[in-house]
User: Fold this.
Amino acid sequence: MDFKFSVGHGADVAVNYILDNFTPALDAIAAAIGFVTGGIQSLLVSTPPVAGIAILAALSLWRVGWKFAIFALLSLALIDHMGLWQGTMETLSLVLSATIIAVVIGIPAGIAMARSDRVASLLRPLLDLMQTMPAFVYLIPAAMFFGLGAVPGTIATVIFAMPPVVRLTNLGIRQVHSEFIEAGLAFGCTPSQLLLKVQLPNAMPSIMAGVNQTIMLSLSMVVISSMIGAGGLGNSVLTGIQRLDVGAGFEGGLAVVILAVILDRITQSFGKGSSGFLSFLAFRKASGRNQTGSSVRVPADDERRSAAA
Amino acid sequence: MPNHIENLKSNASKISKVSLSNVYKVFGHNSGHALEMAHAGRSKSEIHASTGCTIGVDDASFDIMDGETFVIMGLSGSGKSTLLRLLNRLIEPTSGSIEIDGRDITNMSKRELIELRRRDMSMVFQSFALLPNRNVLNNAAFGLEVAGVGEAERTGKALAALDAVGLKAYAQSRPDELSGGMKQRVGLARALASEPTILLMDEAFSALDPLIRAEMQDELMRLQGENSRTIIFVSHDLDEAMRIGDRICIMQHGKVVQVGTPDEIVSKPANDYVRSFFRNVDVSQVFKAGDIARNSQLTIIDRQGVSVAATLEQMEHSGRDVAIVVGRDRKYHGMISQDALIEKVKAKVAEPYRNAFVEDVEPIAAGESVSNVLGRVAESRWPVPVVDDQGRYVGSISKSSLLETLYRAG
Ligand SMILES: Nc1ncnc2c1ncn2[C@@H]1O[C@H](COP(=O)(O)OP(=O)(O)OP(=O)(O)O)[C@@H](O)[C@H]1O
Ligand SMILES: [Mg+2]
Assistant:
């Protein structure tokens, strides 16, 4: 490396190099992400506010309880009253698509970390970097690679919001009680059966906690990424700042907070209520008695894992 | 007639099912050096002090017979769980060979090992290890599911296994809705569903309270009587070991110090460590009524046309005041006294046997521990008959045979 280059200059050169040589690949990524984001966005935005409010309130009633459902109903009606319904739905669709992408990449990455100490020690600094780098920094390369709009906004959001789901997937799998691992192995599980039938189901509460945190981080990032034209509630906040319009900024901020509270409570209920992966997928009603996996846990010792590998 | 308890307990044949020779397990790095020291006969603590390695199992060599209930006993940290896990290679042996049905498992490939675990062996755990995300049925079917058995077949087999442990009605319950004893029944059903030939049980009943624990031991023995497998059972409880074990293996600091039948171990303990297990043991707790029942009473089979005169003659001849009346299926009917029988015959009563039963004699269950029946035997005028759980006559306990037992063991 030539030390006359400053670090910043190096990053610059790298970005330009990628732009010059990988444009087709970048376009493909943009198309794929655009497909997910666009699909979700057009679905949510085209849903009439009354229907949207009814669906979210019903979800709150089912997963959380009637008091919270009333809160959801009133607060969403307030958003609509403030004229921010469309922005809220744009934001929600960005959050959902970023979360989907983060989960699709993050859970396998977490699994890989749990299964190999080497992968874990490689990924850990990368995760630290992703989490501690100021969120604005992602906006610049995202905008350079993918232009302005929802796609670079989603990508910047994914990078910023993915670490918790990776970390908590890894942690959840490593903390599955060694007797469960032993039971799986003693009955003749292959490594992949062990993962699917024993480790993932038992790590589900932890993974869901990761998903919940990823959603919350996406929401905070989505506001920032409106600076590169991602749209949504961030626009209201941004306009408020630019025009020093406290009212507009406050309304936008309030809508973000309401969305955050509703998303948080609903997603938390999935982590708490059902410890089973399948029951989660099947959206079965959780019974509060189910264990949350908080019992004493001993990481499987290497001896036993090597028998599995 | 062979001793009843022997019948119940032992299905052991003379064929070796599991055979260990010079098996060592060293935990830790630099195990080579530690292994050399172990070969040279250095003790666990010496080896730990100089290499930092822990000897889990130190030169184990013994055979476990087909159909046998083999109990591994020892104090905490003596290597019981390690030894058990070497048998299905949940823990890899450091050296030595372990043969199952004549095949050395220590050099099996991963694939062969998985096959072996699916087909031949299963395991029951101290804290049950039921998967919380599955209902009871799917827990019981777990081994079959993993082995790729089709849904219909595995449900059928899992239900049959649940039925065998009396939990068929709970098939749809979730594990956390069950009591400890019920959970372990599910654990047992899960282990039995794949019809393994070897059952590995690590302190399977230790987490249960004493009553449930005894019940589970009986359950295991009953299942074993119906369909025999080789059971390898880790326990730190002598009463449990005596109760269910055909043979007991005693471990100390990773070494196998003695392998023998409960009787051999009580009567010829290999060293003070083994003896120390028995020091506080109350023999009347260890022995069951069935163990000390003698078949020394006169038995009469109650059937059509049996001659009362001949019976009286027989009693007279052998100098007995009483005799045991059993059915053709050896089911216990009652105890008759000579006096009562003569009286009934004189009075020309129909069915003289039935009417001549001694009234205050109630049979004792074979599984009852001797300590529980001391009082009844002591108070009874006659020897007390003992019956098995199907009501068949096993033998009787007289005051003198009881005293003899307590004296010999004490
Ligand atoms: N994974 C491991 N790593 C290092 N040492 C171990 C490991 N597992 C067991 N040991 C050691 O091996 C020895 C035997 O342990 P083991 O668990 O087999 O004992 P145990 O007889 O089953 O005891 P307990 O009655 O407490 O269950 C102990 O000294 C223990 O510290
Ligand atoms: Mg143990």
Notes: The two ends of chain A are 40 Å apart (CA to CA).
